[in-house]
Amino acid sequence: MIVFVDLVFFTNFALDATVLLATAKVRKLKPRKRRVAVAAAAGAAYAVAMFWADVPYLYSLGAKVFVSLLMVLLSFGYGGPLAFLRNFGAFYMVNFATLGGVIGLGSLLRSWNDSSGALTITENGGIILDWHMHLGLFAASFFLSLRLFHGTTDIRRKRNDTESLVWKAEVRIDGASWSVPALLDTGNRLYDPLTRTPVMILEASVWEGQLPAGWCTRLQTESADRLVAELDESASASFAWMDRLRLVPYRGVNGSTRMMLAVKPDALVLSREGHPPIEAARVLIGLDGGTLSSDRTYRAILHPELVSAGQEIPAPSQPA
Which sequence ranges are marked TM in the entry (predicted)? Predict the structure, then answer.
């Protein structure tokens, strides 16, 4: 068998450099390209040494882990034991994800005869896999696996970022309460222009049983002031929240001024893990006829002032 050492070196160099850059992206690091190149060269030199040095211990588990630690250290530095271990773990996570994708795609494209002939069971019950893949297919599978890994981690990161801003919002009216997940939107600056009361936006479907029939659907296409104007005397008398209704003007996406239907609650209690509950009495609940989050991660949007200016609810005292 003829082995082209230069091809082995540059192939491993490119793969190691790509994995290290993917690790940097996962860990949100910005290493110097020179450091990444030196680390990738060290990994490629170790791969080439397999064809030159006949030293069994050089290919043991300990030696492989040592080389991996060296590559991570050269690329990202030390930065403390915790940061170093996290970088090392991310490095192996990217390796396993991309290698698994390459093997999976390669197995998927193999015919039955090739797959069955490549699998051998030894007398001791071991399995030997004679696995071959064209270099071009290997490169395509590797970068496709890396792309899928990036997409998955980006989605997970965005979801985690969103969940870190989600609060539990409990709206209290006339002794009843409704709890929904609410997203804290620091860009929300919606106030009632007359009283400067902050407005929290809530999906109208949460109150479908409390609002007049058809309002939840009509709020998607019709103006809120039109719905209020249609309430006759009999409907007004049967609607318990009539005195709580407000119309809040706001500017739409196209720049036109529209009216949002809002309800004045008795109180709004906000809570989340690791934070004491907050009560806000000065708030309006604006109703949105659509769906705020497609995956129902949240059903309301919080005004930032509700968190910053809310009053903490003291924990109940323990009996002596």
Answer: 6-24, 36-53, 65-85, 92-111, 131-149
